[in-house]
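Sanity check

After download, print the first record. It should look like this:
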Amino acid sequence: MSIDPAVRDRLALNLDFPSLSEASAVADRLAPWFGIVKVGFELFIAEGPATVEKFRAAGFKVFLDIKLHDIPNTVANGARAAGRLGATYVNMHTLGGVEMIRAGVHGLAEGAAIAGVDTPVPIGVTVLTSDKIADPAEVERRMIIGRDGGCGGFVCAAAEIGVANRIAPGLITIIPGIRLPGADTHDQGRPATPDEALRAGADIILLGRTVTGSTNPETAAQQAYDLAASVLL
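Expected structure tokens:
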């Protein structure tokens, strides 16, 4: 099996599991195909900062998917704590407004400086991909908030990558809701296949149940890799 880092580093694995032991077992099993892991609410609340430390030590980049959203001072404090952990990406809801985003961006930088780690890339959440329809004007409004607040990229649907590139050229796009062709879309309202998202210009694609819920996760991971490689290589 030959895996090109240029493809692996664009694939992120959603570790939506209730315990670090379960998540670690899946991450270890699928490490050949994924350079990034996403730690979300369930796992982070259950296991705390040890999740980020564990996966960083295993050689993964970590996307800390905690979707910060509160008053600016509270977000600044939470982001400062998150910034200390060494995650590569941390997200926050652009729905909170420019001042909240700025507070979060500043907090991440402060926390990283205190801990002596690289500052996480602040990622703005736009319209959740569980929504079947996203108003284009609202997507654009939230991207402008993220851009003006200092985000380094967005979480958005594949169909909205063009808007992101127009509103904020040079910022990265992280695309959830990625599904293998013919697979169950589960609760994703605006899904895309790996090749569709990358052809549209995605920087990072997130795969979860379409791989981890498969009867053969390794085969599903290889299929995702092959579809990505067909665009990237």
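If your output differs, re-run the checksum step. Summary of this record's structure: DSSP finds eleven helices and eight strands in the chain.
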